[in-house]
Amino acid sequence: MTIEKVELFLCRLPLVHFFETSFGRQYERTFVLVRVVGDGHEGWGEAVAEANPYYSSETTDTVWHIVTGFIAPLVVGQSFAHPREVFPALRRIRGHNMAKAGVEMAIWDLFARREGRPLSALLGGTRARIASGVSIGIQDSFDQLLEKVEKERAAGYQRIKIKIKPGWDIEAVERIRARFGDIPLQVDANAAYTLNDAALLARLDPFQLLLIEQPLDYDDVMDHAELQRRIATPVCLDESIHTVRVARDAIDAKACRIINIKPGRVGGHQASIELHDLCAAHGIPVWHGGMLESGIGRAHNIHLASLPNFSLPGDIAASKRYYQQDLIEPAIDIAPDGTIAVPEGPGIGVTIVRDRVDQATIRHVSL
Ligand code: SMG
Ligand code: MG
Q: Rounded to an integer, what distance in angstroms lies between the CA atom of residue 231 and that of residue 260?
C-alpha cells in the first residue's frame, strides 16, 4: 500500500488528577497525534513524547521536527507490503523512537483497517481481554495515597503500582501493606536512585513486591545488574530498554527479571513484537507500560498487550482516570474483574471523534 499523506496534530488535554513521578508533577498532557492516509483508508497513531525531556530525551517539539523533516519524506509516496517494513525503512534516523512509533503505529492501524481486521490479529494477539493495573503517582500525603489505592482496588484493578522517590518509598509501601495486606503491588522509581542506595532498596525486600521498576539511571544497565545481585525484589527495566539489542544485553547481564514494553520507547509495534518474542525466549515476563495516552495510543496498547507473553497486568487503565472526555468512542473502560476487552472492529477498533481532536489541537500540519 502506498502512503499518500501524513498529518500531525499537537494536542493538549487537562488531566483529571495531577500525576507526579520522581521527576515532577504534571496537570495536563501534551502529545502528538499522527494520521496517515492511503488506499482510501486512514490510520491513527500517537507519539508519546511529552512537552519536556524528563521521562525521555524526546519532546513533542523533537517529534514534530523529526517527523516533518525526516520521517515523512521516507514514508509519503512510499509503498509498503506490510507495516513490519516501516521501522527498518527508518533505520537511517538514529533514535527518536517515539517519533518513529507514532508514524509506524498509524500505518499498522491503516493496514488493519484496510484488511477489515482488528489490529491484535495482525500483531499476533491471542487473548480477547487484557489484565489491567493502575499506576498511582506521588501524592500530597500518605493518607491521600491510601485513599487512591482504596478507590482503584474498588474499581477492580488487578494490581497497584506506586511511584517512589527518596523520601517517598519504604514508608509508602509499609503503609499500603499495613492497610491492604497482600495485594499485588509494585513500585516505579523512574531512575531516582543510584547504586549507593542499594541497602535502602533492599529494605523493600520483606514487602514481597512484584517488582521494582527502573530504580537506577536510564542508561545504566550494568548498575542494575549489580543492584539485582543485592536485592531480592525482581528488577524490571523501563527507560533503559530503548532497543531490542539493549534488552538482549540487559537479559544476558541479568540486569532485570521482568521487562516493561512501551511501543513508543522502542519504535513501534514491530520492535515491540521482537522485544516480546526475545523476552519469551528467555523466560522474561513482560507487561505493557503506559504514557498517559489518549484513547488512540491507549487502544494501540490494548491490542499489543493481547500477545501471549504479556503475562502481568499492565499500566493500561480506563480513559476516565486521565481525561474527562477521551478523543475516542467508546472510551476505554474496565470490567469489574479488572480486565479490558480488546476492541473487535477493524484497526484499533475505536472511533476517533474528530471534533474533540480538533478542539484539543494547538498545531496541525499535513505532509
Ligand atoms: O499511563 O497510567 C499511565 C502512566 C503509567 O506510570 C506510568 N508511566 O515510568 O512507567 C512510567 C510512567 C511514565 C509516564 S510519566 C510521564
Ligand atoms: Mg516506568
A: 19
